[in-house]
Amino acid sequence: ETGVTQSPTHLIKTRGQQVTLRCSSQSGHNTVSWYQQALGQGPQFIFQYYREEENGRGNFPPRFSGLQFPNYSSELNVNALELDDSALYLCASSLAGAVRNSPLHFGNGTRLTVT
Amino acid sequence: GDSVTQMEGPVTLSEEAFLTINCTYTATGYPSLFWYVQYPGEGLQLLLKATKADDKGSNKGFEATYRKETTSFHLEKGSVQVSDSAVYFCALRLSGGTSYGKLTFGQGTILTVHP
């Protein structure tokens, strides 16, 4: 069973630039969620994707956007980067079912630094 | 809104000491409750879970009981090891609807165990 993988592991960008982070979900999982974890804080929910559509969003501005592909992999895009966007970005996958939803399984994250 | 509050850290213990990390929550409805652990440089790993009141989750010697009357889910371990040193996060997920990908996390508690 392949776990959740994220790329790249580290990234440095300049304020105002755009960034794309990638995530491959765990085998058999159909839902992907993205989280932002600032240093010393708990992860904050950005949004989730199910069947290639966003169907849940946290308190993040529209410059945070995403995609989910037919193979359930996903991208997180952030436009007009700000210094406060510096954080660890975590991807999590799960299996959404009619009866029971599986726990979330997380990748190791992408460390984004905005200078 | 929904929230999770963890005891302030960091927590420093000697090997074989007893561990308690307090967690209380506020939520609408009946959430599922989770403990995740994060080792340095890694993503989050599910440690244990409970889906309804009075359920006890357990794994690797850790235990937590879902207490609806006190809205708590305290993490305990009878004898900690140096390898347990990590950051521990309490989290909740609401049931039903499209909440399967959204976890609400506490701020995390840093645990350091000395030999």
Question: Could you describe the 3D structure shown?
Answer:
The complex is a heterodimer of chains A (115) and B (115). Chain A has 115 residues and is mainly beta. Chain A has strands spanning 5-7, 10-13, 19-24, 31-37, 44-50, 53-57, 64-68, 74-78, 87-94, 105-106, 110-114. In chain A, the strands form 2 sheets. In chain A, strands 2, 4, 5, 6, 9, 10 and 11 form a 7-stranded mixed sheet that branches. Chain B is mainly β and 115 residues long. In chain B, the strands form 3 sheets. In chain B, strands 2, 5, 6, 10, 11 and 12 form a 6-stranded mixed sheet that branches. Chain B has a 4-stranded antiparallel sheet with strand order 3-9-8-7, with no helix packed on it. In chain B, strands 1-4 form a two-stranded antiparallel sheet. Chain B has strands at residues 3-6, 11-14, 19-21, 23-26, 32-38, 44-50, 56-59, 62-65, 75-77, 86-93, 104-105, 109-114. The interface between A and B is medium-sized, with 30 and 24 residues.
Please provide the count of β strands of chain B: 12
The proportion of residues forming helix of chain B, as a percent range, comes to under 10%
Shape of chain B: globular
Q: Which regions of chain B contain 5 or more consecutive residues with pLDDT less than 50? A: none
Largest interface: A-B, 30 and 24 residues
Structural class of chain A: mainly beta
What multimeric state do the chains show?
A: heterodimer
